[in-house]
């Protein structure tokens, strides 16, 4: 149980520190191509690997550029994490694009469309033609 707590704490600290780095420390212009936020961090049980899930808001081109910038910044991010977190061994870092928010937005759009269609049908019900 203590191990899970430690992993959770390290994950939370990595998320916090990488979020700060994205905001002010990473100077690669490609990272600024889309708005980036850290959604969550998965840390392996041995604390040697960290998958940093990021949500990128912007065009597909901006997403690709941002991911390229993040991948080139992995060495910097790992070094900074080593300095800031003072772990025995700094985990290897991998950025993964998280499209969950994008899918959630799309689902909300579809639900809104369905709701609007239902309201239109209630206001203007289709009356079958009567045979005469």
Describe the structure.
The protein has one domain: 2-Layer Sandwich (GMP Synthetase, Chain A, domain 3). The chain is built from 4 helices and 3 strands. The protein has helices spanning 2-25, 60-72, 74-85, 100-123, and strands spanning 35-43, 49-57, 92-97. A 3-stranded mixed β-sheet has the order 1-2-3, sandwiched between helices. It is elongated, with a radius of gyration of 22 Å.
Quick structural gist:
The chain has 132 residues and is an alpha+beta fold.
The count of strands amounts to 3
Q: Can you write the helix and strand succession as a string?
A: HEEHHEH
Number of domains: 1
Structural class: alpha+beta
Topology readout:
Layout (H helix, E strand, L loop, with lengths): L1 H24 L9 E9 L5 E9 L2 H13 L1 H12 L6 E6 L2 H24 L9
Parallel strand pairs: 2-3
Antiparallel strand pairs: 1-2
Structure characteristics:
132 residues, alpha+beta, GMP Synthetase, Chain A, domain 3, 4 helices, 55% helix, elongated
């Amino acid at each position: 149980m203590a191990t899970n707590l430690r992993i959770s704490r390290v994950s939370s600290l990595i998320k916090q520190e990488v979020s700060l780095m994205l905001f002010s420390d990473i100077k690669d212009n490609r990272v600024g191509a889309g708005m980036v936020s850290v959604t969550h961090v998965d840390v392996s049980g041995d604390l040697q690997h960290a998958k940093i899930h990021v949500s990128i808001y912007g065009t597909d081109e901006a997403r690709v550029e941002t991911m390229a910038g993040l991948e080139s910044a992995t060495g910097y991010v790992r070094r900074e994490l080593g300095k800031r977190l003072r772990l025995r061994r700094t985990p290897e870092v991998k950025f993964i694009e998280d499209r969950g928010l994008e899918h959630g937005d799309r689902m909300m759009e579809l639900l809104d469309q369905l709701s609007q269609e239902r309201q239109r049908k209630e206001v203007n019900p289709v009356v079958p033609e009567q045979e005469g």
